[in-house]
Amino acid sequence: MLRRYISYTTNKFTNCRHVSQSMLQSTVDEKSGIATVTMNKPPVNSLNLEFLEEIITLLNKLQKDKVRGMILTSGLQKVFCAGLDIKELYKPNPDRLTKFWTTLQDTWLSLYTTSFPTVSVINGHSPAGGCMLAMSCDYRVMVGQNYRIGFNEAKLGIFAPKWFQNTIIAVIGQRKAEVSLTTGKMYTTDEALQIGLVDETCADADSALKKGTHFLNNFQNISPWAYKMTKDINRQSTIQWLIDNKQKDVDFTVEYMQSPGVQKNLELYLQSLKSLPPLKLISEIN
Ligand SMILES: CCCCCCCCCCCC/C=C/CC(=O)SCCNC(=O)CCNC(=O)[C@H](O)C(C)(C)COP(=O)(O)OP(=O)(O)OC[C@H]1O[C@@H](n2cnc3c(N)ncnc32)[C@H](O)[C@@H]1OP(=O)(O)O
Predict the structure, then answer these.
(1) What CDD domains would the database entry show (predicted)?
(2) pTM of the predicted structure, to 2 decimals
(3) Which ligand 1 atom lies nearest to the CA of residue 77?
(4) Domain positions in the chain
(5) Which pLDDT score, from 0 to 100, does residue 273 have?
(6) Count of Cβ atoms closer than 10 Å to residue 204 Cβ
(7) Which terminal residue of the chain has fewer beta carbons within 10 Å of its beta carbon, N or C?
(8) How much distance in Å is there from the Cα of 30 to the middle of ligand 1?
(9) What is the spatial distance between Cα 144 and Cα 140, in angstroms, rounded to a whole number?
(10) Which residues lie below 8 Å from residue 200, measured CB to CB, with a gap of 6+?
(11) Could you tell me the distance, in angstroms and rounded to a whole number, from the CA of residue 27 to the centre of ligand 1?
(12) What pLDDT is recorded for position 277?
């Protein structure tokens, strides 16, 4: 059984505080107060129930520690986050699926409403829920030219709920969000920059981390209270929609995911994942 542990240590030479959970590592730079959170759940950082629970726990801890900003990135070679763990959706146990979806809603609410600014450094493929993870941050920097990002849910025969779609609309606008979601297109780095899915691109992960830090330094002279109030007002309608419709969204999803048509589509998709080389898969579905 995987040993789960949390440890907090301070390195007196680097002035960094490390928080390590089994699938997430966090390092807080004592001088700037910026936390770098690295997702490390091989093979593809897929979001299952336990991973989401760790993300919420860590976000709560960072909030309590009053960090000044967070950079979210991946410790894997070529994947930022492969989205929701399809195994949570395929042939699900209804009780677990209910808990999974409720935890997904709570994770999104925690990330979308952080009291500190957030940046995702997208250093690998980022489909569907992985793209949503990045969209839920305040700023996005994408690394290199080899990865794809976008919302391929339609290719899996499923659709994104209203709170998910509204988050995308807030970033790229109604028209581009509609085209992106209905076609399931996966974008290259340059295309993602062009439509505004990401804010900046750069050649390597180190430069991306510098760009992320540079963005977060904009907040050095901004009152945390003013930042949080402004963000809450800006994002309020989507947040409020989910708060008002949480149970309805869970009930609908649990029923919808178990329907024979959706299950068939997921089965076919899982088979195609096994039979096609992944990069080919991602480019073939463009
Ligand atoms: C703060 C939280 C915010 C989160 C926002 C959530 C918003 C909620 C609303 C969501 C509603 C909308 C629904 C969203 C649905 C999804 O997200 S479904 C997931 C969609 N993802 C994909 O389609 C990705 C498919 N994977 C790939 O294309 C490739 O695996 C890859 C390019 C990502 C990586 O390629 P490579 O590194 O070569 O690895 P592989 O050999 O392909 O894979 C290794 C291994 O992992 C399995 N796997 C891959 N992806 C997933 C996944 N998403 N879930 C579960 N498992 C996955 C793959 O099958 C391999 O398994 P085996 O080794 O063969 O056993």
Answers:
(1) crotonase-like
(2) 0.92
(3) 37
(4) 24-275
(5) 85
(6) 11
(7) N
(8) 34
(9) 13
(10) 140, 141, 142, 193, 208, 211
(11) 26
(12) 56
Q: What is the ipTM of this complex?
A: 0.95
Residues β-bridged to residue 53: none
What pLDDT does residue 233 have? 98
Nearest CA to 124 out of 155, 165, 81 is that of 81
Q: What is the pLDDT of residues 37-77, one digit of tens each?
A: 999 999 999 999 999 999 999 999 999 999 999 999 999 99
Whole-angstrom distance, CA of residue 52 vs CA of residue 47:
6
Query: What CATH topology corresponds to 24-275?
Result: 2-enoyl-CoA Hydratase; Chain A, domain 1 (3.90.226)
Query: How remote is the CA of residue 4 from the centroid of ligand 1, in Å?
Result: 23
Residue given tokens 């990002």 in the structure block: 149
How remote is the C-alpha of 69 from its chain's centroid?
16
Contacts of 25 (CB under 8 A, 6+ apart): 18, 19, 37, 38, 40, 75
With residue 274 as reference, give the H or E element that holds it: helix 260-275
* 265 in catalytic set: no
| Backbone CA torsion sign across 132, 67, 217, 201 | negative
Question: Which atom of ligand 1 is the closest one to the Cα of 269?
Answer: 23
Angle (nearest 5°) at CA 118 between 88 and 142: 75
Q: Is the pLDDT of residue 88 over 60?
A: yes
